[in-house]
Amino acid sequence: MSSSHSQAPQDLPDRRLCVAPMMDWTDRYDRYFLRLISKNTWMYSEMVTTSAILNGNQDRLLGFFPQEHPIALQLGGSDPEDLAKCAKVGESYGYDEINLNVGCPSERVSTGSFGACLMAEPELVRDCVAAMRESVKVPVTVKHRIGIDHLDSYDLLCKFVSTVEEGGCKTFIVHARKAILKGLSPKENREIPPLQYHVVHQLKQDFPQLEIIINGGITDLSQARAHLEQAGRAGGMDGVMIGRSAYHEPYKILSRADMEIYNDEGGGVTYFQIIEEMLPFIDEQLKAGVSLNSITRHMQGLFHGCPGGRAFRRHLS
């Protein structure tokens, strides 16, 4: 979060690169692996529902390795009291941020009354954020779309953001597509509604006091930099979140992130250093009863686009 914000516990770096929360992908083994490639990029957990946390195995759902920091927990839910309880549990596990999912377009999610359908209820999202803010000292952030179905005007988006800001949210991660809740699958919702980056940049211009992180369709660091380099000027992004590309091409996306996004000259690691660091970790996890594939499946993209990359993937398989 930019240094102009007064609440110390809510302060975050001036600009940041994030790996998006992705179900079945960004688990603790993937995040540990990605952390070896970039030490500054923010990691996000897979979405965890409040009912799973309140009724399930919390260690299995929320446990992570200390090396994963900075890391955010993404929650799915719509009951302020339950979200406050779960945010508190997340904070006790050591997460650096609690993020509320108001962007997932899956029908299964909508019937549970959370995800993107909550964009139609900004007051409820405000109350959820306020309850979570009350229960934790770490930042509470919201990830959402630019609209849903016919509720997709810029005025409605501004109303959503200003209402949720009243609950104390200072950071909005905005997927630059609207969600179509009836008739499109989650995969189609990532591809069919057109990307509208200008809407997110306009949002930053109209809400300069907020940290706005842009998400959706960003596939390399040069695109990320283009969104960030307007920073300091009207409409410049405070952060960029990359999804599938960071998973499928982790080295290409993240190996230069520390240097190019965070100006960290100590950044930069070779393919082989990453593998060398993974070996003792894998050994330790196998001894703890973790299956090899649970870890190596996330490493398939390490040599993406390199000579011998296919042989490496075959070897892992």
The CATH class label of the largest domain is: Alpha Beta
User: What is the end-to-end distance?
Assistant: 41 Å
SSE order in H/E notation? EHEEHHEHEHHEHEHHEHEHHHHHH
Q: What percentage of amino acids are in beta strands?
A: 5-15%
CATH topology of the largest domain: TIM Barrel
Mean pLDDT across all amino acids: 90
- What would CATH call the architecture of the largest domain? Alpha-Beta Barrel
Function: Catalyzes the synthesis of dihydrouridine, a modified base found in the D-loop of most tRNAs.
Protein name: tRNA-dihydrouridine synthase
InterPro entries: Aldolase_TIM, DUS-like_FMN-bd, DUS_fam, DusA, tRNA_hU_synthase_CS
Binding site for FMN: 21-23, 74, 143, 175, 215-217, 243-244
Properties at a glance:
tRNA-binding; TIM Barrel; alpha/beta; NADP; disordered N terminus; 2 domains
Protein described:
With 317 residues, this protein is α/β, with parallel strands linked by helices. The chain contains 16 helices and 9 strands. It has 2 domains: 8-269, Aldolase class I (TIM Barrel, Alpha-Beta Barrel), CATH 3.20.20; 272-316, no CATH class. β1 (16-19), α1 and β2 form a beta-alpha-beta unit. The model is unreliable at 1-13 (pLDDT under 50).
Quick overview:
This protein is α/β, with parallel strands linked by helices and 317 residues long. It has helices at residues 28-37, 50-55, 58-62, 80-93, 107-111, 122-135, 154-166, 186-189, 197-206, 221-228, 244-248, 250-254, 257-260, 271-287, 292-296, 309-316; strands spanning 16-19, 42-44, 48-49, 71-76, 97-102, 140-145, 171-175, 211-215, 239-242. The N and C termini lie far apart (41 Å).
